[in-house]
UniProtKB/TrEMBL annotation:
Highest taxon of source: Bacteria
Name this protein carries in UniProt: Co2+/Mg2+ efflux protein ApaG
InterPro entries: ApaG-like, ApaG_domain, ApaG_sf
Domain annotation ApaG: ranges: 8-132
NCBIfam families assigned to the protein according to its UniProt record, in alphabetical order: PRK05461.1
Species whose genome carries this gene: Novosphingobium mangrovi
Amino acid sequence: MKELFQHAAISEGVTVRVAVNFLPEQSRIEAGKWFWVYHIRIENGTEGTIKLMSRHWRITDGNGEVSVVDGDGVVGEQPVLAPGASHDYVSGCPLPTPQGSMEGHYIFRRDDGSELQTQIPFFPLAAPATAG
């Protein structure tokens, strides 16, 4: 099944694409827990090799509460992308509300040691309305 990437951002030749899906089977709505899975594809459109060093996420729930998540690499990896290569990974986000949003950036290191910051596009997290 081909995934539809709903959101994309391009920064200095690096494209970050996001597909997000609500997972009712992982959510516990009666307990105030909603869960989304997101698929990220990073495409290196630069002329040099880049290594993903760190991530910065800003996660906002439906009450306006903001969580900031910083860490090395993505899902335990620091992928190296040659020119024209891409890297895919999947992760998840729980929220205490049926809607929210995520956005952020990655820091890459180029072959010459310089840093490159790429935008992760803003994307909404929205659970479908449930009959109540």
